[in-house]
Design brief:
This protein is of the alpha/beta class. Among the domains are: 272 residues, Alkaline Phosphatase, subunit A (3-Layer(aba) Sandwich); 89 residues. Helices cover 37% and strands 11% of the residues. The chain has 20 helices and 13 strands. Strands 1, 2, 3, 4, 5, 6, 7, 8 and 9 form a 9-stranded mixed β-sheet that branches. Strand 11 and strand 12 form a beta hairpin. The chain starts with a helix and ends in a 13-residue tail after the last helix. About 2% of the residues have low confidence.
Length: 619
């Protein structure tokens, strides 16, 4: 018997096993993960159905990867980054829900890349670290800064790398001599925006910046391929918050929270993907899901404190029914909104509906589109659709995002939507209670923070939520309940009771004696809210001394900013305090930039150097 063929076949088998093992030794046992992030843009991409967009690189990535049709995030960057780095809602660690704040985090909380480092990953961040919390950057990142890159890792080490692209940032709309690739006349102006030359120019510039972004993403992908790493790297592309054209960034309509998300899985790691290449996932996802997803892809255990769910990998969870967003203080201006999204519906609850959607926020108003909207309002030329977003808010909003992507048909009072409204209300309440939502506390409260707000009995969130919801209804029939709450030992209960009276304005006249007593409350926030309510009752002589005193307290910035906000809302009523405001401005220049912005604006308006915003009467 000739045994040569058998021996030859056996040698070939050994040879194949040897080279297979050699190849496996040269490849990482875990996938590399690359995040390519853009700033301040919503879904103006060809792969999301935008016919004007010039985004061939991202469109190709979507065709070869998985596109998420319903990815949502916070409406501004820093609270969004808190959610990304922690895997938790920003409202769990007040004041992280406010823009440019330092959330009070528990001692055990660390940025999720730290878990990857412990598992052998090289982690790099290029380069944003404004997490709204004192996250230990050195613990999370092997390298962080403008020079940080996966290319500096030890040979063969798997990496997780983030690159942030600023080309589409809000500041790109501020006046400067920049050519556009797009014709302003060809722009589609949404019904909620006035059709002005400035608005069209901003849209054209924005599309140009998105085209530039696509080129930058192409360069990053080429760099990955040139390094021979494309076959081993899962690539995420997403935007950090919604777009920057008026009524997007900072607001909870779809235009401010709906962002693109594309994830590409190379063939080697396609078994970790939630769907086949070219798939489009319609279930809602949120930034809170990103940290657990990366850990799942890397084969790292997901810590119990993370509130999101893995979208892919070995620990992939069932799809979300709802995701949640919040809006609180944006730079110097306070407001408070909460939203719930499903794959179809958007529900928004406005907890200060008496405040206008658009306040004279200094940074935002450097954009010419907002300036032109203010001009149209002063000229009395707002349409019903453009006036919706230029004045006071309804308490509740409900939009069908599939039928009404511009969010201009509020279905909150439609009988046919009643069941959907109640279902989303219930979902919001559950989330607020689970989160111990710190946004229902006044900024500067001793109860803010993960640990402080969870001390048993310290923060009665169930009662606070119920009272805040009642106050936001602006129903005079609720006044007895508000009055009864003035004597409550809990600071946030008294605060919401006073705010409820401020929202009722002259319909809260019966509360005047009790409001006078609250001017001496032990909480500065309660004093300020009571002063606002009294000013709305036509008692500026009682309100102004309290507001001016707190505005001058540079050592307590949250209360100074709160008081300055109220003074600015009062406008002409605040004129008797002009000398005190000028003195406070001189003090604030050394301490708090936000108080400076508000006081400077109000003084300029009162002295005729700046025109106030003009709002339609929605009452």
């Amino acid at each position: 018997m000739n045994r040569l063929p058998v021996i030859f076949a056996f040698l070939l088998l050994l040879w194949g096993i040897f080279f297979a093992n050699l190849a496996n030794a040269a490849s990482p046992a875990k996938p590399n993960i690359l995040w390519l992030v853009s700033e301040d843009n919503d879904c103006l991409l060809g792969c999301y159905g935008d016919a004007l967009a010039k985004t061939p690189t991202l469109d190709k990535l979507a065709n070869e990867g998985v596109l998420y049709e319903r990815c949502f995030t916070m409406p501004v960057c820093a609270p969004s980054r808190f959610t990304l780095i922690s895997g938790m809602d920003a409202v769990t660690c007040g004041p992280a829900e406010h823009m440019r704040a330092q959330g009070r985090i528990p001692s055990w909380l660390k940025g999720f890349p730290a878990y990857l480092r412990e598992a052998g990953y090289y982690t790099t961040n290029n380069a944003k670290t404004d997490y709204n919390a004192p996250i230990n950057v050195k613990q999370a990142w092997s390298a962080s800064g403008k020079q940080a890159t996966y290319q500096n890792r030890p040979a063969g080490q798997p990496f997780f790398s983030v690159f942030n692209h600023e080309v589409s940032h809000e500041s790109c709309l501020f006046p400067k001599g920049e050519a556009s690739l797009f014709d302003p006349a060809a722009m589609r102006i949404p019904a909620y925006q006035p059709d002005t030359p400035e608005m069209r120019a901003d849209w054209a510039r924005y599309y140009t910046r998105i085209a530039n972004l696509d080129s930058q993403i192409a360069a990053k992908l080429k760099e990955l391929a040139d390094a021979g790493l494309a076959d081993d790297t899962i690539v995420f592309y997403y935007a950090d918050n919604g777009g920057v054209l008026p009524r997007s960034k900072r607001f909870l309509q779809e235009s401010g929270t709906h962002v693109p998300l594309i994830v590409y899985y190379p063939p080697k790691w396609r078994h970790l993907a939630p769907a086949a290449p070219g798939s489009r996932i319609k279930d809602p996802v949120h930034f809170i899901d990103f940290a657990p997803t990366v850990l799942s892809l890397a084969g790292v255990n997901i810590p119990a404190h993370m509130q999101g769910h893995a979208m892919a990998g070995a620990a992939k969870a069932p799809p979300n029914e709802f995701v949640f967003c919040s809006r609180d203080r944006m730079d110097e201006r306070y407001d408070m909104m909460r939203s719930v999204m499903s794959s179809r519906w958007l529900y928004i609850h406005n907890y200060r509906p008496d405040l206008p959607f658009v306040q004279p926020l200094n940074y935002m108003f450097q954009a010419r589109g907002y300036q032109s909207w203010a001009r149209v309002a002063r000229e009395g030329k707002l349409t019903p659709a453009t006036a919706m977003f230029w004045g006071e808010k309804p308490t509740e909003e409900l939009y069908d995002m599939l039928a009404d992507p511009d969010s201009i048909h509020n279905l909150a009072s439609a009988p046919a939507s009643r069941e959907t409204l109640e279902r989303m209300r219930t979902a919001l309440e559950k989330r607020v209670l689970v989160d111990k939502d710190n946004g229902f506390l006044p900024e500067g409260s001793a109860l803010e923070g993960y640990d402080a707000s969870r001390v048993p009995g310290a923060y009665p969130i169930e009662r606070v939520f119920a009272l805040a919801t009642m106050a936001s209804e602006r129903n005079p029939a609720n006044l007895p309940n508000l009055l009864e709450s003035f004597g409550d030992p809990s600071e946030p209960i008294r605060w919401w009771a006073a705010q409820g009276c401020a929202m009722l304005r002259d319909k809260a006249a019966a509360a005047e004696p009790a409001l006078r007593k609250l001017l001496n409350d032990k909480s500065g926030a309660v004093q300020i809210a009571a002063a606002e309510a009294l000013a709305r009752l036509g008692k500026p002589d009682l309100a102004l001394p309290v507001l001016l005193r707190w505005t001058a307290q540079a050592a307590t910035p949250p209360f100074a900013v709160q008081a300055a906000n109220v003074l600015d809302h009062l406008g002409e009523i605040a004129r008797p305090g002009l000398p005190s405001m000028k003195a406070a401005l001189a003090t604030s220049r050394k301490a708090d930039p936000y108080a400076v912005r508000i006081l400077s604006h109000l003084i300029d308006v009162l002295e005729g150097r700046e025109q106030p915003l003009v709002y339609p009467d929605h009452q």
